[in-house]
Amino acid sequence: MEKFKRILPDLIFNLAETVIIILMGMLLKLPINYVILVMLTFMITRGVLGRPLHFKNWYRCLIWSVLIMLSLFVLLKVDLVVSITFAIFAAVMMTGKANINDMYLWKSCDEPSKYQDIMDYIKYNELDSKLLEFECKIKDRNNLEYLIYKYRFIDGKTFSEISELLDLDNPRIVEHLDKIAFAIRLYCGI
């Protein structure tokens, strides 16, 4: 009985929220079976893919639910498939599994580079005999890799600057940098 008393407010809120969302779909003059299909797609995807995000305040939950469902219902006016696709996308976003910070191709300069240890080593040990030997060996072996090494680690140029100077695309630069990074870490013991 005590467990039921704890669950009762949540149950009442979830039912009220569902009724509000269905009424919103009816106000938009959408077929009720499509409204239920989009709602179920969102809820099932959200529940299956992971631990869904929850809000501490009931009104935030209501606002977000109404806004998400309203946007999905507006898309439902366009096409059912588009609305279901975006319902799945929104559900993934609301599980917390999707990292919104990785959504864009730009990242903050606050995050250290994966080559930061090499940059620091070169900065503080520029006259180290092993480092100088490594530079000579890489220069003799492959001039392109030496230029990439020089531009990135010594001159501190960005990927786009290196790309312009050497007429290479970024994936190729990263491929060479990964080889160089592995070699210098091994050779200099970083």
Characterization of this structure:
- There is one protein chain.
- This protein is mainly α.
- The protein has two domains: about 1-100, no CATH class; about 115-190, no CATH class.
- The protein has nine helices and no strands.
- The longest helix has 26 residues, at about 1-25.
- The termini are far apart.
- The mean pLDDT is about 85.
Short description:
This protein is mainly alpha-helical.
Q: Number of folding domains? A: 2
Order of helices and strands: HHHHHHHHH
Helix share, percent: over 70%
Shape: elongated
Count of individual beta strands: 0
The major beta sheet can be summarized as: none
Structural category is mainly alpha
Key structural traits:
190 residues, elongated, mainly alpha
